[in-house]
Design brief:
Elements lengths: L3 H10 L3 H16 L39 H28 L5 H27 L12 H8 L4 H29 L3 H31 L4 H13 L9 H6 L4 H8 L3
């Protein structure tokens, strides 16, 4: 059997979505069986571009067509956008395992579990697109999610702050309204899938929040002050709002912190 980190690397570089999902499932399985992970066994590649199929075409976000709930075509585009996010999220979770190898075993367990749930989300969305005579790759998409992964690949503290606590947490803010709009148009299949994703994403943000706060404590840093400094450094001091306070608090944010962060919106 190939060494553990070689298998993680292969999953990240895998371009076929079905195979990537299966490799992710297998990684969880072998990890739970007690495979050893030698941090020095293989070099860590930068991976500027993870494995993905030839489509979707990646374009500037401003070039994406309008996505309306009022038409079936618009709802397909919206579901495709979610599928693209979840496909990228598999790679993002696996990259945390692959890149930051000096972390304890529960870090690996946490991010493999996230990768497995993201793969499940992608499969649900892909199957629903096929039910609607579409497929993943049928609509253009953008690469903004992976850009932040590249910016934070040399610093785990920055990664845990800016990917789970900014990018994924934004999903907690916007998904309930998306669910409500799909429900308004009687799209029960989309509602059911997005409710699964929303429930799981609270847990994913909570995992990122836990490791961010743990790293801050180990480095003697004030977590909330450090987070605001990283938002200044990487986000120009701006966050998008409004916040879903109840979901963010469930995921680890504190009321006082949210009060301060809302002033950055």
């Amino acid at each position: 059997m190939p060494e553990f980190y070689r298998q993680v690397e292969a999953a990240i570089l895998q371009s076929d979505p079905a195979r990537k999902c299966e490799q992710t499932r297998q990684l969880v399985q072998i990890w739970e069986q007690g495979v050893s992970a030698d941090a020095d066994s293989t070099p860590i590649l930068p991976i500027d571009d993870p494995g993905r199929p030839g489509k979707p075409e990646l374009v500037d976000p401003r070039q994406l067509p309008r996505r309306s709930f009022a038409s079936e075509t618009g709802r397909i585009r919206l579901l495709h956008a979610f599928a693209h996010i979840e496909f990228n999220a598999i790679n993002i979770a696996l990259d945390a395992v692959y890149r930051f190898r000096r972390m304890p075993p529960d870090f690996i367990s946490d991010w493999l579990s996230v990768a497995a749930e993201e793969a499940q989300h992608f499969r649900l969305l892909e199957a629903e697109l096929e039910q609607r005579a579409s497929y993943y790759g049928a609509c253009p998409a953008h690469s903004g999610l992976w850009d932040m992964v590249c910016k934070t690949r040399d610093n785990l503290l920055h990664r845990m702050a800016l990917v789970p606590r900014v990018m994924e947490a934004r999903g907690l803010d916007v998904t309930p309204a998306m669910i409500a709009r799909f429900r308004q148009f009687g799209d029960d299949a989309a509602v059911a899938i997005l409710e699964v994703i929303y429930r799981d994403e609270v847990g994913h943000v909570r995992i990122g929040d836990y490791w961010f706060r743990r790293l801050c404590a180990e480095q003697g840093l004030d977590a909330e002050k450090t987070f605001r400094e990283l938002v200044d450094l990487h986000m120009g001091g701006r966050l998008r709002g409004p916040f879903n306070r109840s979901a963010r608090i469930e995921a680890g944010f504190r009321n006082e912190e949210l009060d301060a962060l809302e002033r950055l919106c």
